[in-house]
Amino acid sequence: MAPSRYVGILALVAGCLLPSGVRALWPIPHTLETGTTALTVSPFFYFDVQVEGAPLDLYEAVSQAQFYLANDKLGRLVVGRGANDTTALVGANTLSTLTLSLMSGATAEPIASEAVKPLGTRSEEYTLTIPADGSAATLVANSTLGLYRGLTTFNQLFYYYGGVTYTLLAPIAITDTPAYPFRGFALDTARNYYPVSDILRTLDAMSWVKINTFHWHITDSQSFPLEVAQYPELAINGAYSPQEVYTPSDVQYIVQYAGARGIDVLLEVDTPGHTSIIAATYPDYVACFDETPWSTYANEPPAGQLRFALPEVVNFTASLLADIASTVPSSYFSTGGDELNVPCYTNDYPTQLQLNSTNTTLNDALNTFTLATHGALIAEGKTPVVWEEMVLDWNITLSNETIVMVWISSEDALAVAERGFRLVQAPSNYFYLDCGAGAWLGDDPTGNSWCDPFKTWSESYTFDPLANLTEAQYELVLGGEQCLWSEQSGPENLDPIVWPRAASSAEIFWSAQQPTGAPLNVTEALPRLQDLRFRMVQRGLKPIPLQPYWCAIRPDACDLTA
Amino acid sequence: MAPSRYVGILALVAGCLLPSGVRALWPIPHTLETGTTALTVSPFFYFDVQVEGAPLDLYEAVSQAQFYLANDKLGRLVVGRGANDTTALVGANTLSTLTLSLMSGATAEPIASEAVKPLGTRSEEYTLTIPADGSAATLVANSTLGLYRGLTTFNQLFYYYGGVTYTLLAPIAITDTPAYPFRGFALDTARNYYPVSDILRTLDAMSWVKINTFHWHITDSQSFPLEVAQYPELAINGAYSPQEVYTPSDVQYIVQYAGARGIDVLLEVDTPGHTSIIAATYPDYVACFDETPWSTYANEPPAGQLRFALPEVVNFTASLLADIASTVPSSYFSTGGDELNVPCYTNDYPTQLQLNSTNTTLNDALNTFTLATHGALIAEGKTPVVWEEMVLDWNITLSNETIVMVWISSEDALAVAERGFRLVQAPSNYFYLDCGAGAWLGDDPTGNSWCDPFKTWSESYTFDPLANLTEAQYELVLGGEQCLWSEQSGPENLDPIVWPRAASSAEIFWSAQQPTGAPLNVTEALPRLQDLRFRMVQRGLKPIPLQPYWCAIRPDACDLTA
């Protein structure tokens, strides 16, 4: 695969000398060939959907692509923003059509259906060809999902100046396919609540960089904003307010909105830790509830964890998780499992009574609990997802299919792989977007963020998904995700703290071909990421500026060694 | 002064037990007495302006206060957000009027005129009394500016629940006066541009915490967005785009808007460093323009500094600064003077030719340049303001009136004071809001922010304005400011990166009575700052969340040692 990838890199290197239209692509396609011919987009440009039985969400995607094509109006990030391109555009050929079609034998399912298929069975690849002579461009894929990815790429190919939408790099030929099947973004909506509109806007941005999983950490110890039909009191007593909830119809709308953008919604209901607020409804189910000092019983306030040794808690949790999981189409569901605090149970009378009377250990009880909760999910057709502690810190039986998320450190992937589990890379030392904002606990003026320092896009971008692993273990790496934990975040800072940084992992897991293609390079990437960022601004997002604008329009001039 | 300040602290300590309405005050007033009586605000409440010849901007301020009183609708930050207060409100007395008046002998000038008087001659003090029996509240001051400050306090006294605006702490008696005359916020609008609307919104927020100086770092090496009537090419060639400029009428509007909110606009046109972009118009006036490696010639790209040794550059700069200064009413103008790079001139032929032919040193030339530029400003009636290097790194003659801003380190205040200059505290190790966001230069994936770590509100809040100084030097400390440098900021993240953090210095310099009153305390302050933050949200600002909402409504529960 390496040689074909080099085609793309070489074209881009040339693009640093030429006026590069393709500088805007993010993630960089698997193969990319470009020419040097100017091509303008016709004011009468249209997308020609030659797909038999095309589903509604494909037409919606085309309509969205048409909107972006007309409204992005992104000037090239050079001094003058494209003013110098106008002479090249005089007499240029005009592109009037992009024809979308499926490969023969492929059937047209809704994008939303393709997006929730099991990992490894989704078809995201596509071929996009734009001739230089003005004849129709073509987009071909094996699925509507592949067509959706291709439309995303198509929208990134064009700049705008003085009323003209154009590329200077026709002909363009792209064949594209992701390096990894799982490319996620995780959002914690429990420490602080995000209105549905913020989530939808985030899903849009995710789709622009081909992220295909919204890992929704929807509940935690602080709040339970998820309305569950069978357990309505959990949100009534556990949401921050009656307005700060996700109703079943909110969830359905978000899932549908995500699916239409090629995104699977992976719900996480973190158990048995991170559940303090459940005590507001079921006080008997929660140990060490709001005990102080909280730091003895939890990593952050408030303390409180499910009494997983009690049979009624096992039944309740299995039922709760299955009920929630049954409402969403994803093949996956996360039961969490991080930061389980043992001292919480040491003096917990109901837990100790149960353990003593049944002559079992805390570990055995956790095993029973996990078998039951995971069993209930598997019965619903879901594959369980857990945080790394469930395999590294505890001795419990998990289905071989279980997916393990590595978060504490990138060093831990090896240990997970050695146990034979498939894994998702979400290491805090590369991918936690909340790091570096200082201490948030009160009375701690000299405290720093526990995962200091702030992870810049480029630090994240240097992450190697296969580091430390043996070649035989490579296939266990499903992909990765960047995460926003919300102790110090909310709708007020969502866009700038996430974007464009979350695009770093999106490119790593789309473009970094395993086992080892050409390594990604921060210097080559920065101008493209700037382009992505400015296109995001054009689309109404509020991504953080990466540099002074002076630097943004002078690629490489602000490199450390320039 | 300490005893009267203790009244306030004690009332607040009691307030942690009682339902505290006054928890919301920020900055905390000089003296504060509260009762335990509920008092509701009448739907027909009005502000009774008993001020002879009241200026228009006082009426505008009253109108704004009326708007906030009706629309803040801030629930108390406790579980239930005030639901438990409703019984106390049954049959409560109703407040119908706040009477505003000036002390006898005081004359009613516009707030905007009072706001630009020389430091030390402005009258910001006021007395606010709210009886418990429903009779008229009174606000008395020596000036319209004092009345404005009092209105700001009045608006922070009330909560809202279920259609009722109320306090539970009547009667309330406040006498208030600032500890320091200069309380600023500095914004760099040159690295990245901010639309006028962003500046206006920021001025509003500044006024809510009684910040009285907008230090506007309006130009820098990267861009020159300021349109100067006598030198139009500077912005034509130096602004990022024709849209990204501050026209003379923009500046007038901003100055007027600020003035009406009790805020003086201190313009900074940084010289002779930080001027690279002037070369786009006057290439002969700039040394080492865009030289590489930039790191030899500047602290950040692009390199380029005024050839201050050349007589024509001295004349140009003096004329430019005087022309700009003459358009604004402030008594102060900053000529910058930070980070002057010597190697820039070492091989600069015009500079060396001039120095050799006149047998002068670079230091002498800087002295001549500064005498001329400051002289021109003094002739315009302005007091010059400079960064600390102008007195610590160079041997130049400055007017005794010159104000020196300490920025490199809080340790440097002593050296400035030892030279006898009045100073403003803007130390990067406490007050730089941009710290902690990682490296922004390209090709530097492992680089951190130069002033790591991120300055939390509480770290900033522990700053002692008088640290290391002798008692005789205390009077030299005019106040201080937090600063946003915009390498990694722009309109997209302005609100969350500035607020509520910039309120920390606002309280230090309003409430920390010198020489040494009761020290400010982060644990006491946090619930009040949370209240301020949530009130800011109610007013449409986007301040960063400081903690999970669970913590915000449970004061002290998320303290480090809780």
Description:
Two copies of one chain form a homodimer. In chain A, the strands form three sheets. Chain A has an eight-stranded parallel beta sheet with strand order 9-8-7-16-15-14-13-12. A five-stranded mixed barrel of chain A has the order 1-2-4-3-6. The first copy, chain A, has helices spanning 2-17, 56-71, 86-89, 111-114, 144-156, 196-208, 232-238, 248-259, 294-297, 311-325, 343-346, 349-358, 362-379, 389-392, 413-418, 428-431, 457-461, 494-498, 503-511, 522-538, 549-552, and strands at 31-50, 93-102, 126-130, 137-141, 159-161, 164-176, 182-188, 213-217, 264-268, 286-287, 305-306, 332-336, 383-387, 403-406, 422-425, 477-484. Chain A contains 21 helices and 16 strands. Mean pLDDT of chain A is 95; it is low at 1-21. Chain A has two domains: 2-176, Chitobiase, domain 2 (2-Layer Sandwich), CATH 3.30.379.10; 182-512, TIM Barrel (Alpha-Beta Barrel). With 562 residues, the first copy, chain A, is of the alpha/beta class. Chains A and B meet through helix 17, helix 18, helix 20 and helix 21 of A and helix 17, helix 18, helix 20 and helix 21 of B.
Compact summary:
2 copies of one chain form a homodimer. Chain A is α/β, with parallel strands linked by helices. Chain A is built from 21 helices and 16 strands.
List key phrases describing it.
34% helix, homodimer, 8-stranded parallel sheet, TIM Barrel, 562 residues, 16 strands, 2 domains, Chitobiase, domain 2, alpha/beta
